[in-house]
Structure formats: C-alpha cells, structure tokens
Design goal:
Blueprint lengths: L2 E8 L2 E8 L3 H21 L5 H16 L1
Antiparallel strand pairs: 1-2
Helix pairs in contact: 1-2
Length: 66
C-alpha cells in the first residue's frame, strides 16, 4: 500500500498523519464531521471548554457506532 503524509486540523490543532492513500477520503470526511459537530456544540453550549465539546462529540459518535 502506498503511504501518504497529510495534516489534519481538529479543534484548531494540527495533527500530522501517515495513512494509506486509499483511506485519505475517509479520514478527511471524518475530520469534517468532527469539525461540524464541534461547531454545533459550540453554538449550543457557549460556555463549554474545547475538551468538553470534543468529549461530547466522541460520546455521540461512539453511541452511533455501538
């Protein structure tokens, strides 16, 4: 498999990743989904810490997977 180095940004933090080229689209879609949910939670719960917002996103996504 061909490896690809990319950088993604989640919650204003940059994360360098090495992924299989075939997985790039899925990774970028996942990042977009996370960012969209973060924006929704930021608007809904204005006084929340970024860590709280990320935890809420994680919990929501875990429930959907299970």
């Amino acid at each position: 498999m061909q490896q690809l180095k990319i950088k993604v940004t989640v919650a204003n933090r940059v994360y360098p990743l090495t992924i299989n080229r075939k997985d790039e689209e899925g990774v970028r879609k996942a990042v977009k989904t996370i960012e969209d949910r973060l924006k929704l939670y930021e608007a809904k719960f204005e006084a929340r810490d970024t860590q709280d917002l990320l935890s809420m996103c994680l919990l929501e996504m875990a429930v959907k997977v299970l």
